[in-house]
C-alpha cells in the first residue's frame, strides 16, 4: 500500500529541451511520472531532449522561488548596474546574499551562462518559469539600445508595482477565506463535542425542547454521523476546483469571465487587468519594442482571458494599419478614458507616458478599492460568525431558561 501511495504523488523532474524556435531551455516540471512530464512539456511546445528525476537534498532544497524573489532580484541587479558594477560581479554579490538556496542556485546558473558568453537576455530566457517572455524581451531591448541599466530599473519598478497590486488583492481575498474556514471548523467542533453534552442534560430533564434547540440537536446528530462525509465533500470541491482550473483550459477561461461579473470583486479584478495592460504596454513601448510585438507580449501578461482575447484582437487590427485607440474601441472591453488617453498619446507621440498615467490611476483605484473592501468585509464577517455561534449558544441555553422560568 505504501508503494502505491508513493507512485501517486507528484515528483519533480529536471528537463532540457528546445522551444518552437529551436532555443535551448531548461527547467523543472512536476508530474506523477516521466511520461506525464514529457506530455505536459510537449503540450507547452517544448521538445524534450533530456529529462530526469530531481534529486532531493538530505536537508531539503529550501523555499520555492516566488514572484517577490524575482522582483527583488530585478531591483538588486538594476541598482548594481546603475552603480557601474560589472555584470558577473553583480551576480556573484546577489548570489551570495540569497537566503533561499533555490534562488541562489538560479542566480548562479544565470551567472554561469553569462560567463560562457551568452547575453543576459539569452541566459534569463533559459529559465522561462521565472523569467517570462516580457522580462526577456525588455532586457533584450535594453541590450540592443545600450541602456540596459535603465531598462533593468524600469523592469524592477514594473515587477514591484505589479506584485504590490497582486499582493493586495490576494490579501483581501485571503482574509475572508481564512475566517470562513475557522468558522466552519468551530461550528463542526461545537456540533460534535459541545452540543452532545447539553443534549445528555436535556434528556435527563425529560422536558419538551424549543424548536431552535431541536434544529441544532438534529444538526449535531447528522454531523456526528456524517462529519467525515462533510470534510470529504469540502475537500473534494476544493481539490476538484484546483485540479480543473490547472488542467482544463475551458474551465479556467470560464472562471476568468465569471470573476469579472462578481459584484465589487469583479470591478477590482477589471481595474487590475486594465492597470496591467497599461503598465505592461507602456513599459514595452518605452523600451523600444514595436507596438505589434509589444501587444503580443502584453496578451500573456494581463492575467485574464477576456483581456487576453481583446489584446490579441487589437494586435491583429494594429498590424493591418488601424490606430491603437480605434482597435481598442472595437473590443468593447476597455473604459472610455483609457481609449481617449491612448488616442492623445498616439497624436502627441507620448503613448508610453499616457499609458503610464493610466496605469498609475488604475493601480491607485485598485489599492483604494481593496482597502475599502477589506474594511467592509471585516465587520460583515464578524457579524456572520458571531451570529452563527450566537444562535447555537442561544439554542443550547433556551431550555435552561425555560425550566428556570417554570421553577
TrEMBL record:
The chain crosses the membrane at residues 172-192, 227-244, 380-400. Keywords: Cell inner membrane, Cell membrane, Membrane, Transmembrane, Transmembrane helix, Transport. One of its GO terms (cellular component) is plasma membrane. Its main location: membrane. It is a multi-pass membrane protein. It comes from the Bacteria. It holds the Pfam family T2SSF. GO terms for biological process: protein secretion by the type II secretion system. InterPro entries: GspF/PilC (IPR003004), T2SS_GspF/T4SS_PilC_CS (IPR001992), T2SS_GspF_dom (IPR018076), T2SS_GspF_sf (IPR042094). Residues 73-196, 277-399 form the Type II secretion system protein GspF domain. It is found in: Cell inner membrane. PANTHER family: GENERAL SECRETION PATHWAY PROTEIN (PTHR30012), PROTEIN TRANSPORT PROTEIN HOFC HOMOLOG (PTHR30012:SF7). Belongs to the GSP F family. This is Type II secretion system protein F. It comes from Marinicella pacifica. The gene is pilC.
Amino acid at each position: 500500500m505504501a508503494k502505491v501511495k508513493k507512485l501517486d504523488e507528484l515528483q519533480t523532474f529536471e528537463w532540457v529541451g528546445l522551444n518552437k524556435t529551436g532555443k535551448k531551455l531548461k527547467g523543472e516540471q512536476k508530474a506523477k511520472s516521466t511520461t506525464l512530464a514529457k506530455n505536459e512539456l510537449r503540450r507547452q511546445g517544448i521538445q524534450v531532449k533530456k529529462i530526469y528525476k530531481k534529486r532531493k537534498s538530505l536537508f531539503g532544497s529550501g523555499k520555492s522561488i516566488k514572484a517577490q524573489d524575482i522582483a527583488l532580484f530585478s531591483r538588486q541587479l538594476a541598482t548594481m548596474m546603475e552603480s557601474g558594477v560589472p555584470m558577473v560581479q553583480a551576480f556573484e554579490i546577489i548570489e551570495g546574499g540569497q537566503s533561499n538556496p533555490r534562488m541562489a542556485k538560479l542566480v548562479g546558473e544565470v551567472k554561469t551562462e553569462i560567463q560562457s558568453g551568452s547575453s543576459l537576455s539569452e541566459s534569463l530566457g533559459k529559465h522561462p518559469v521565472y523569467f517570462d517572455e516580457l522580462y526577456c524581451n525588455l532586457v533584450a531591448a535594453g541590450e540592443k539600445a545600450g541602456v540596459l541599466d535603465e531598462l533593468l530599473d524600469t523592469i524592477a519598478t514594473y515587477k514591484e508595482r505589479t506584485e504590490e497590486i497582486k499582493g493586495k488583492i490576494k490579501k483581501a481575498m485571503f482574509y475572508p477565506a481564512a475566517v470562513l474556514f475557522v468558522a466552519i471548523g468551530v461550528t463542526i467542533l461545537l456540533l460534535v463535542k459541545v452540543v452532545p453534552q447539553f443534549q445528555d442534560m436535556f434528556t435527563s430533564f425529560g422536558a419538551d425542547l424549543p424548536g431552535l434547540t431541536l434544529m441544532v440537536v438534529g444538526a449535531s446528530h447528522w454531523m456526528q454521523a456524517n462529519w467525515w462525509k462533510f470534510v470529504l465533500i469540502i475537500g473534494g470541491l476544493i481539490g476538484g476546483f484546483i485540479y480543473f482550473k490547472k488542467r482544463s483550459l475551458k474551465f479556467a477561461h470560464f472562471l476568468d469571465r465569471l470573476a469579472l461579473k462578481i459584484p465589487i470583486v469583479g470591478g477590482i479584478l477589471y481595474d487590475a487587468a486594465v492597470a496591467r495592460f497599461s503598465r505592461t504596454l507602456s513599459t514595452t513601448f518605452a523600451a523600444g519594442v514595436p507596438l505589434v510585438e509589444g501587444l503580443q507580449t502584453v496578451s500573456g501578461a494581463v492575467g485574464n482571458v477576456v483581456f487576453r482575447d481583446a489584446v490579441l484582437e487589437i494586435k491583429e487590427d494594429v498590424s493591418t494599419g488601424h490606430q491603437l485607440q480605434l482597435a481598442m474601441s472595437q473590443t468593447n472591453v476597455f473604459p472610455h478614458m483609457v481609449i481617449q488617453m491612448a488616442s492623445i498619446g498616439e497624436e502627441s507621440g507620448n503613448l508610453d507616458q499616457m499609458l503610464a498615467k493610466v496605469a498609475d490611476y488604475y493601480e491607485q483605484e485598485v489599492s483604494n478599492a481593496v482597502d475599502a473592501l477589506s474594511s467592509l468585509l471585516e465587520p460583515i464577517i464578524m457579524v456572520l460568525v458571531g451570529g452563527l455561534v450566537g444562535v447555537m449558544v442561544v439554542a443550547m441555553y433556551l431550555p435552561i431558561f425555560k425550566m428556570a422560568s417554570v421553577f
